[in-house]
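Reproducibility note. Readers wishing to regenerate the assembly model reported in the main text can use the exact inputs given here. Chain order matters: entities are listed in the order in which they were concatenated for prediction.
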Amino acid sequence: MSLKLSTRQVDGITILDLSGRITLGEGSVQLRDAVRDLLSKGSKHILLNLGDVNYIDSSGIGELVSAYTTVRNQGGELKLLNLTKKVHDLLQITKLYTVFDVKDDEATAIASFTK
Amino acid sequence: MFELAAKLDIAALCKHTSGMRNKPARLCFMAAPEGQRLKESQASRITYTLESSLDSVNRVEQTAEELAKKAGVEEDEVYRIAMAVREAAVNAVLHGNSYDPQKHITASFENTGSDLIIRIADQGVGLDPDTLPDPLAPENLLRGSGRGIFLIRSFMDEVHFKLLNPGTELTLIKHLGAEHAAE
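Running the prediction on these inputs yields the following structure tokens for the assembly.
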């Protein structure tokens, strides 16, 4: 299953709801384009909801990192929400769990952004 | 050997993977004609030669997943094995062969009873694993790439690199439990 994306706004934060796989050549490109599109439209507070992402490979991990650094370099914030166990474990073994700001609750995540 | 063939059901596995996405594998050395049960002497291993494409990556991943499931590996381990094999195939297609349509990857799958052994080979310039930067080093944490081999090593029990002429062959080994070895 390829990646499906949809965006919504909550209290000035853009939530990107992702569903499916983030892998080389499939979801990774879609994620990159979506984040670039949001930035081009001035959305710099981005919450990636990964609750329905069932698979990420190393390219997908790299894309998450690239999204994080791209947003941060433009003065914004990118956070992760609702990690599945598989994604959580991947971020832990790659030591990225401490790099990302990871949230389990949407309201808490929204409130945590610097506005 | 026959018992091993029955356990793996390699002929069915080969048929399954060859027919994926209605695009047959370029070669399935041990499955011609497609779907026919293999001879006993051929049953312990299957090998594919595939084009350098993402479709091939998906096929190799799914074959590994099927192999691990048939070996009775528990679900989380199936996922890890399939991901490791996917990463090896991505390396072969992307970094090894650079999507060159003139180059192929070969993938072989074997259940010895005590081990799952998967070999992925490309026709690239060759990879020296000792030159790869450590993705866990603080200065590399925010790199957008370079985690594939690390994940392979994390998920498999043994990983061996062999330089070919040309190319690189990765051998990924997952030890099966004693209960499997005794079967």
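We highlight two features of this model. The mean pLDDT of chain A is 95. The interface with chain B takes residues 23-26, 57-59, 61-63, 65-66, 68-69, 86, 90, 93-96, 99 of chain A (CB under 8 Å).
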